[in-house]
Amino acid sequence: MSDLTVKESNDKAVKPMWPRLVVAVVLLVAIGAAGTWGWQQYQLRLAEDHKAEIQAEAIAQIEDQWGVRFMHVALVAEGGLLDVRYQVTDPDKAVYMFDEVENIPRVIASNGIELAMNDDPHVHDLEFGYSYFFLLRNVDDSVKSGDQVTIKVGDTELPYFEVEQ
């Protein structure tokens, strides 16, 4: 007969550490990515709030100084023209907007090109509450749908005005 020897061991089996390390690293990367994404969203929101604040101040300043409120800028004629619409809030002030060449409204594209009407635009009687428009040639396709342009009247600028299609 053979002798069987049974060895009794108090040694516990050692489990490998690498699965726990992998899980810890994955969790740290996920937390870091989520934190970075959250910070970026917060910064974007702050930037949008700042843009809205600047635009609101410019809208109030143009309305106070020139008696008009710009309502929209849109591409028309297959992108060849810009349709700029405004509403008259004070006809006595609005008439001066077309009185001198320096005051004629202009649109400044995001690439810096200034789009303006001719030096002697057709002017008609402006009435309170009525909406009017003028067309500008989109030189070199400077403005695209969705772009943010600046409307300039005299020395006053209205930035971050989104171009509609």
Give a description of the structure:
The model has no long low-confidence stretch (mean pLDDT 87). This protein has a 7-stranded mixed β-sheet with strand order 4-3-6-7-1-2-5. The protein is built from 2 helices and 7 strands, in the order H-E-E-H-E-E-E-E-E. It has one domain (38-164): Sandwich (Immunoglobulin-like). It has helices at 18-66, 91-94, and strands at 68-76, 81-88, 106-108, 114-116, 131-137, 148-153, 156-164. Helices cover 32% and strands 27% of the residues. The N and C termini lie far apart (97 Å). With 165 residues, it is an alpha+beta fold.
What's the arrangement of secondary structure elements?
Blueprint: H1 18-66, E1 68-76, E2 81-88, H2 91-94, E3 106-108, E4 114-116, E5 131-137, E6 148-153, E7 156-164
CATH architecture: Sandwich
Specify the number of helices: 2
Using the coordinates shown, work out and report the CATH topology. Immunoglobulin-like
- Briefly, what CATH class? Mainly Beta
Q: In percent, how much strand structure appears in the residues?
A: 25-35%
Principal-axis shape:
rod-shaped
Count of individual domains: 1
Task: Describe the largest sheet.
Answer: 7 strands, mixed
Tell me the series of helices and strands, N- to C-terminal: HEEHEEEEE
The percentage helix is 25-40%
Number of strand elements? 7
**Averaging pLDDT over every residue, what do you get?**
87
Low-confidence stretches: none
